[in-house]
Amino acid sequence: MEDRQNRSQEDCTGLLKKIFGKPENLLNKTAPDGWKNSSLFFVHHPTEEEQSERASAFRENLDSLHGLSKNAGKGLSPAPRPEVEVQVPDQSPAQPFDEFIDILGHCIWHVFSDNHDVVDAEGKAFHLGSWRGAAGFIADFINQHFPVGKCYGYMDFYMGFWYEEDRVKCFPVFIHIFEILKSEGLDWVYSFPGVYIVDFEKGDNAPDDPANYNPNKAMAGTIEKEERTKKFEQLKADLEKTREAEMEEARYKAPPVAVQAYRKVFGRLPEGFPD
Predict the structure, then answer these.
(1) CA distance 183 to 160
(2) What is the C-alpha to C-alpha distance for residues 16 and 141, in angstroms, rounded to an integer?
(3) What residue ranges do the domains of the chain occupy?
(4) Taking each helix axis from N to C terminus, what angle separates 96-112 and 131-145, rounded to the nearest 10 degrees?
């Protein structure tokens, strides 16, 4: 995500209003064969098979973390696995409008946040905030303009959808979002995911008290700082190598669903995505 000038919060709110439009009409557009016959229905009502697969994956992660944290380096067998309750298939009645509003909010987070930028022709960004800030902006927007059966908070949209398969189900919604952006003369700048590090060490430029100056201590401090800087730069280089390798691999894999939707609407890959 580049440092950009930002459009006003009023502009951001106006753009979200255009994306939401009349949600009832948009719901019918993205689920023309009925809500229960739409892929969107299964975002809030995953199949029994999906729930079982998610529970199994969760158990495996718990096994790994629990065993590592308790017995790593001790030559011991993994600790007993904690019990994980398996969810029963969701039997709750569908609430198409409420569920659709929730889905639209999540998809907006994936487009406007996650380090990506929605930009105008001058390169100014419709910046909703940080990852948490953007989630809060979306929650407040829905609570004010499209209230449903719950009052949203930032945690409802923070990090978007946890499961990739849920994002895939939302392809029609991503299509709609990018159609609105294109009709408004806007564009989307993709930020390839990666791990970044920040050096919080602040240099101490205050002069030493001559009366307390210790040359041996000063030399040791200089050597320690140089070693720390060297390790930091090496870690940065290693992370950049990993990121470059992942970007190269991405050229030969199916792109994320949001990128696929962008390409369908704009006829090309977004800036920032490896081609």
Answers:
(1) 25
(2) 8
(3) 1-41+93-198+254-275, 46-91
(4) 150
- CB neighbour class for 44 (10 Å; exposed up to 12, middle 13-18, buried from 19): middle
Q: What is the pLDDT of residues 165-187, one digit of tens each?
A: 889 999 999 999 999 999 999 99
Please, are residues 274 and 251 in contact by the beta-carbon 8 Å criterion? yes
Tokens in use for 214?
Answer: 């210790």
Q: At what angle do helices 96-112 and 9-20 cross, to 10 degrees?
A: 140
Strand-pair partners of 6? 125
H or E element that contains 111: helix 96-112
**Rounded CA gap, 23 and 19, in Å?**
9
With tokens 């792109």, the residue in question is 255
Predicted TM-score (pTM) of this structure: 0.73
The more confident residue out of 130 and 51 is 130
Question: What's the CA gap between 218 and 203, in Å, rounded?
Answer: 14
Q: How far apart are CA 2 and CA 83, in angstroms?
A: 45
Distance CA 156, CA 158 (A): 6
How open is the CA angle 178-182-186, to the nearest 5 degrees? 100
CA–CA gap between residue 244 and residue 99 (Å, rounded): 38
Instruction: Give the position of tokens 């790593």.
Output: 72
- In angstroms, the CA 142 to CA 102 distance is 9
Nearest partner of 262 among 84, 65, 116, 88, judged by Cα: 116
* pLDDT of 237: 63
- In the block, tokens 């199949």 appear at 47
The pLDDT value given to residue 111? 96
Residue 195 has a pLDDT of 47
Q: How far apart are the first and last CA of the chain?
A: 18
Under a CB-based contact definition with an 8 Å cutoff, are residues 189 and 271 in contact?
A: yes
Looking at residue 160, its pLDDT comes to: 84
